[in-house]
TrEMBL record:
Highest taxon listed in the record's lineage: Bacteria
Pfam families (UniProt xref): ATPgrasp_YheCD
Native source species: Paenibacillus xerothermodurans
GO MF entry, a single one: metal ion binding
Coiled coil: none
Protein name: YheC/YheD family protein
Length: 355
């Protein structure tokens, strides 16, 4: 989808896809629903000789790698209309569903359920107060939100007194403040949370310096159509932030560095990594069984002080920038090329079927 001024959010990633695609014999076109006219599309393509983007009118590709961020009813309408009009297109992956529905679906698989923080749908202040009695810390999250927007953390300081901090809908940091239980409802009044937010058990994520952290795992299909763990990296939030998202100012740290800093014992670190990888593969396989063919998943994980692995969130349109930021060039290159290799695998299978 175009941002203001017909800009595209991931244009550098699309350039890399185009360059690597050419090496694999795949011609990459970039377009939005606004570029479509009937069965033709005025698509962007990256000209290697000119080293710049150009446009050409061409047929709509038969295989689409959907990177659209909906962000608003108008964009969602455009995507829905495009999918309905061009229902013969095959997609590398597919959308999943909102955070609350995902929690309900994954709770049905026992091997995954034991890694899920307790979660309920917010229907009123009484839900929040009841959850606060059960858990030392909780998170309030928009069940359709992304990028750390609108997330609030409440942490018990003493009887009936809580520490509140978070980010507003524009991702701006909400100053940390101490509030009494009776003030909570008033503070959150006007956020329109009923049915729009989930309340989630908070996993202790603070490092020794007080900053929160988590891990982003990238699970992708390879050139043979098999799931692989491409990589996993730590994300550390900025000061006074309750989220670690890179878009919100977070920093990327190699997984081994972050785990060793916290646990020191190398056998413990290896055990945690093994648990995380096992969980990542289970999640990918289970969600594919439920939703149908997928291409890649960004899986957000938390490791508590005991070393238990928790599953926080699953994203079907993940970024891979975290690997570039920690200097893992090979992992980043693999993260970029795997969707292309999987696309070539799908093309080859289609050809074999037609023959």
């Amino acid at each position: 989808m175009y941002l203001h001024g017909k800009k595209l959010e991931e244009i550098d990633f699309f350039r890399k896809l185009s360059v690597h695609g050419r090496k694999l014999g795949i011609h990459v076109l970039v377009f939005t629903p606004d570029d479509v006219d009937g069965d033709k599309v005025n698509a962007l393509y990256y000209s290697m000789p000119a080293r710049k983007w150009k446009r050409k009118l061409t047929a709509i590709p038969e295989l689409v790698y959907d990177r659209s961020r909906y962000r608003g009813a108008q964009n969602l309408q455009k995507i829905t209309k495009f999918r309905a009009l061009h229902d013969k297109i095959r997609y590398l992956g597919r959308p999943l569903t909102d955070k609350w529905s995902m929690y309900q679906i994954m709770s049905g698989e026992s091997d995954i359920a034991k890694h899920l923080p307790a979660t309920v749908l917010y229907s009123g202040p009484e839900d929040l107060l009841r959850f606060l009695k059960q858990h030392q810390r909780i998170y309030l999250k928009p069940h359709k939100g992304t990028g750390g927007r609108g997330i609030v953390r409440l942490q018990r300081a003493s009887d009936n007194v809580y520490f509140l901090q978070g980010r507003d809908r524009q991702r701006r940091i909400i100053p940390a403040q101490m509030i009494e239980e009776k003030e909570i409802t008033e503070k959150l009044n006007g956020w329109n949370m009923e049915g729009q937010y989930i309340i989630q058990q908070g996993i202790p994520l603070a490092l020794k310096n007080g900053r929160v952290h988590d891990f982003r795992m990238l699970v992708q299909k390879d050139g043979d159509g098999r799931w692989q763990i491409t990589g996993c990296a730590g994300r550390v939030g900025p000061k006074k932030s309750v989220t670690s998202n890179l878009h919100g100012g977070g920093a990327a740290v190699p997984m081994d560095v972050l785990l060793t800093e916290r646990f020191e014992d190398q056998s413990k670190v290896e055990s945690i990594k093994e648990d995380a990888h096992t969980l990542g593969m289970k999640v990918a396989q289970f969600l594919e069984e439920h939703f149908g063919s997928l291409c890649e998943l960004g899986i957000d994980l938390a490791i508590d002080p005991s070393g238990k692995v928790w599953l926080l969130e699953v994203n079907p349109k993940p970024s891979r920038e975290v690997f570039s930021r920690i200097g893992e060039k090979s992992t980043y290159r693999t993260a970029v090329t795997r969707p292309l290799q999987y696309a070539r695998y799908l093309f080859s299978r289609k050809t074999e079927t037609e023959e």
